[in-house]
Amino acid sequence: MHLHLLLTGDELMTGDIVDSNSALIARQLAPYGLTVARKVTLGDDLKLLAEEMRQLSAGADVLLVNGGLGPTVDDLTAAALAAAAGVELAEHPDALAHLEDWCRRLDIPLSPANRKQALLPAGCSILPNPLGSAVGFALSLGRCQVFCTPGVPRELERMLQESVLPVLANQRGADEVRKLTFFGIGESALQQLVNDHIPDWPADVALGFRAGFPLTELKLTTRNGQAGQRVDALQERIIELAGEYLLGSGTVTPAAALLNLLQERGLKICLAESCTGGLIASQLTRIPGSSTVFEAGWVSYSNAMKTDLLGVSPALLEAHGAVSEPVVRAMARGALERSGADQVISVSGIAGPTGGSADKPTGTVWIAWGDADTLRSHRFLLSLPREDFQDLTATLALDLMRRHVLGIGVPPALFRERRRAPAPEPEPRLHSTPAH
Q1: Is residue 51 part of a domain?
Q2: Which residues pair with 145 in a beta bridge?
Q3: 187, part of any domain
Q4: Domain ranges, residue 30
Q5: Which of 73, 107, 220, 247 is deepest in the core (most CB within 10 A)?
Q6: How far apart are CA 205 and CA 222, in angstroms?
């Protein structure tokens, strides 16, 4: 199936809005074995949009148009598609009914500007929009199916899942895609494991990777449900080879992997965060059901709060500084004592870009994790931009906790020093002092 994508909007051309929708669309298409063969972005020009729709549809089975469905004069998708198809704009009764219902639910009047969203190309079919005011719509241009979708990401995602992808999957015959999410091993290392241990990889199972800092996703794809048993065996073999790095099947976050494990073991966790500013707690608590395992968290950013909230000795802070092993361990023990939780993570570091010194450069972070009987701690140097430093610190801390609960060791690769910004194929390179 040949698929083209047309993105519309002056704001995309000027850079006022960064195009994230094309990535969202590509991710939604991937499980169905579909990819975008050509992508075009145009501003709000009726003539150019209509002409581009004609050209893109002439060489495609499917054309996805994103954006330009709103109530303002620069929302031109409906008019452009009508012009490209040589039909008139007409008020669609289903689109009008949707608008009336939407206004009724919000207790606002249906204005002439909003009513414009019911003016659609004659003969089109409606794509429901349960989240917004603008319905999507579909129309054929020759042999090409044209689907017009809203620019609001959450509305787009819902419409793709419920109205567009089921149609395409039915026509094409969906592929089966297995995904495995890893942390601590990059795509090149995974590929080498496959090369070394599964040299007779079958031709009818496609192996793919996606590295998105700081995780790596491996995909096994088969066409139309074929090679199912071979995929099962290949997946099991990969897990045998790299299982210690595996967070889970599908798209899994480090927080979800740890949360599931704690729920299985009936364990509760607490947190004491400084340099991550509550990021670890946020990642855990955004998951439904986190209250079953998450007891409490402290963001003790200042030294005074480390003392007042967690009982860290002022003398300890004075002697070693906030970013030190004694302090991060004292933070952890204070959190355990105050929460009554079984497990703890504590972090204290220098996120930068300033604040470092010769003995504690920017990017230094101490992490402590474990329980009252076995509390481990390591010093890492993550010389990264501030946001990346916080993201990697949170991910690393969650994964160290996962490994602790599972009773598996930490591979040396996680402790190599990392001094460069994230690359297209990120493999965490960290530095550590001996564990305690």
Answers
A1: yes
A2: 62, 140
A3: yes
A4: 3-172
A5: 247
A6: 5
Distances in whole angstroms, Cα of residue 284 to Cα of each of 64, 278, 290, 376, 401 = 36, 10, 6, 21, 13
Contact yes or no for 181/219 (Cβ under 8 A): no
Looking at the predicted structure, is the pLDDT value of residue 108 above 80?
yes
Both 208 and 167 in a single domain?
no
- Structure-derived torsion over alpha carbons of residues 33, 38, 41, 45, reported in degrees to the nearest 10: -120
Same domain, residue pair 180 and 271: no
In b/e form, how buried is each residue of 202-213, taking b as 16+ CB within 10 angstroms?
Answer: eeebbbeeebeb
Pair 56, 187 in one domain: no
CATH number, domain containing residue 92: 3.40.980.10
Number of structural domains in the chain: 3
Last residue of some domain: 172, 205, 236? 172
- Final residue of a structural domain among 223, 249, 275: 249
pLDDT in tens, 367-417: 999 999 999 999 999 989 999 999 999 999 999 999 999 999 888 777 666
Residue 358: count of CB within 10 angstroms of its CB: 5
CA angle 165, 16, 82 (to 5 degrees): 50
- Looking at this protein, which amino acid is placed at residue 406? L
pLDDT of 19-38, one tens digit each? 999 999 998 888 777 889 99
Same domain for 394 and 361: yes
Same domain membership, residue 261 and residue 189: no
**Within this chain, do residues 77 and 98 fall inside the same structural domain, yes or no?**
yes
Measured CA angle at 379 (ends 239, 396), to 5 deg:
35
As given in the structure block, the two tokens for residue 239 are: 């897990």
What's the whole-model pTM score? 0.70
Q: What six digits make up the tokens of 349?
A: 């570091």
Does residue 193 sit in the same domain as residue 146?
no
